[in-house]
Amino acid sequence: MMALCLAPLSSMLCMLPPLAGSLTSASHSSALLAEPESARRAFEIEESRVVAGGIEIIRQRRVHTLRGLPRMAVSYVWSTPPRKDETAADGEKTRDYKDGAGECALAVTALKSRQSLQKAVADSMDVDALVTTDGSMDLKVQDALLGLDINLMHTNMTNLYTTDMFLGIRQRDPDAPYYGDAEDAYQKLRAGVLRGAVWYLTEYESVVFIDIDALIERVDENAMLVLPKGVEFLTWPCCVDAPLAVGAIIGRPSVDAFQDFVGVLRRGFSFAHGWRGRDGSFLRIGAENWPHATCHGDTGSNVYAEAFCNDKNTSRWDFIGSEGDKGLLFATFTLIRKSSASNGDALGTHSKHWNFLHYYGPNKPWQDGQRKVEKHHDWWDAFDSTRPVLVADAGDTGRRCVALFDKVNGSAHAEHGDASGAIRTLAATSTSCSATSTNARLYASLHELCRKSPTVDVFVNIFDANSTVAGTTEDDMLAFCFGQAERPPCLRRVFSVAGHKATFWRQKLTPERMQPYGLLWAFDNDMLVGDFDFERTRRIMLAADVQIAQPLIDVVSGHEQCPKARLPRVKSAHMLWASGEEQLFLNLSAAAALTPNGCEAQAIGYVENQAPLITVDAWRVLHTQMLSKLDMSIFNHTNWGICRVWCNLVADALHRSVMGKIEERGPACAVLAPPLKTINGCTIEAVGMAEHARSAELAVPWMIGHPYLGKFYANASWERHRQGCVLGA
């Protein structure tokens, strides 16, 4: 590692006068980069250092081979300066990030957001996760982040804008608008200063800046990821109290932009005159630069925009964050460089191209009790999907994070399996809030399933909860729809996704959510799962090496028929099975034992969607190649056709057989010997959804006619029959 002053940075930074309080001393540098005392890293780190004009930038990344592709980054900042009061009100403000929760949340959101961006750009770019810090991050946490392949950048740029300088600005202007504790506001200021350092990293085509309490869950192919020529700063349209938002930004790194940002910092700020331009003149906001300010009637009704509303070219800056991150970025990119833009379709919480989640406000997802709040489910999904890599690659810190969040969640979750290494199963079912008697039996069954099967986690979707429950928490929905006090101990999530089971599967049972699990068991709400020998069934499926399976279905006497028939209504005769639906269900019924005697798993070309067990590999195929392609105007109301496709689709993708010949790796689909009882609760009929849900009139033609899925549609007569025994006998 060397101290240097080389192009492209040298031409800009070397002209800067020395910075008071520079952190370039050997003692500080060694503290920044000291190795944790616990153990040497099991991986190699590449370090580089630039010192110029009193500014120091030290970069660290885990050594691995770069593919030579254009690069982009998702960027976070971290700063934890000592606070004057860690108790009382101040402690309440900082509780979200205490006891290591902040560092752990940072790791989760960085991993998930990087994954989402990499998926969006595929093989056209490489995506890094980057954290910029001022040296206040614990060394063990630094080591853990590097273990997760999250790059680090350390800088002393916050010395350009110290706590005393910041507080002095506020104290000198008695008319400064009050919008919170000055110490708390300073935290955001440091974040803004640290963000500015990232514009130096010109090896990146694009950098997406987001807050620690924000998450990029999904980005579609039409999202703007690299900015057009002339734009260096993009955010979404905002706001009545400030001219721009900074919770999520796309930036184009540039040495010139970095130099201008540093210059703005050096020239300083006052509320009376704002930040200053390159020539030292005071910068004026300008009417075109704050279109969302509310300037009608009494201008004093919006204290943050009062001066602006009275004079659109005012040099007085009272908007929220004007002396901090928002003011710095607004001055640099909107007023000086004129390279900012806002585009609601490119980035933001309402963008059609980004699923960007920002958990702003006092309640963060990782706080006690917040996992039950539905709007926080996606964050916990991200945690569940990153759990394995936290344990495997982040050392003691990663394991501490998992233990911390499990404690917050009241979870005894083990990674992938129990102490014996048993594969974990995610069990999922969907029900109606009005299915009172069925829900009572379901709740009792779930309690018993939890007791008997310690490797099972359960998700429940109440598809009409939004229209019947006033509350927003899981406990509200459970109390209203189930009327039960004690929550089943393995019930991890309660959702309220409207529509049929395909909609629930598509939205909530994503491949990312399935990462901690080996199997998915998607059973109907009328299955008596508490009386079922699930552990035996799971062992049979794994031993048989099949991808999709189901137990034999045993209908409880007296519950054989629903008020309306289950047969499909179609207009074309060729869409009906040759000998009717009854033959198909007979081969899945406990009324006919598997053959020969003693067989525990028998190959079949069709598995119904009443209670399928699906491996995580098969589910990834089904979700990405089928569920994601469905026309939800049809399949939000029915699941017809799905189970006619999945065996052949999985067989093709995973090189399995469904044609009677049992290959060495095992068949795609099988029916398993253990019987699963059902009361045939007829929930669909009870809630008046049968007309669409039991109809194949739209779904079957759509599936058969699909250019990709149609070739996997099973209509051959042999597919109704059981085939060879693959386990037992």
CATH class call of the largest domain: Alpha Beta
How are strands sequenced across the largest beta sheet? 1-2-5-4-3-6-9-8-12
What CATH architecture label of the largest domain applies? Alpha-Beta Complex
| Unreliable sequence segments | 1-40, 82-95, 345-351, 411-421, 563-583, 659-664, 690-694
Helix tally equals 23
Helix content: 25-40%
Average of the residue pLDDT scores = 77
* Major sheet characteristics: 9 strands, mixed
Q: How many distinct beta strands?
A: 22
Classification by helices and strands: alpha/beta
**What is the fold-level CATH name, i.e. the topology of the largest domain?**
Spore Coat Polysaccharide Biosynthesis Protein SpsA, Chain A
Shape: elongated
Cα Rg: 30 Å
How is this structure best described in words?
With 729 residues, the protein is of the alpha/beta class. It has two domains: 10-260 and 338-358, no CATH class; 412-728, Spore Coat Polysaccharide Biosynthesis Protein SpsA, Chain A (Alpha-Beta Complex), CATH 3.90.550. Helices cover 31% and strands 17% of the residues. It is built from 23 helices and 22 strands. The chain has a nine-stranded mixed β-sheet with strand order 1-2-5-4-3-6-9-8-12. A hairpin with a 2-residue loop joins β1 and β2 (55-62). The protein is elongated, with a radius of gyration of 30 Å. 45% of the residues are buried.
Give a concise summary.
The protein is α/β, with parallel strands linked by helices and 729 residues long. It has 2 domains: 10-260 and 338-358, no CATH class; 412-728, Spore Coat Polysaccharide Biosynthesis Protein SpsA, Chain A.
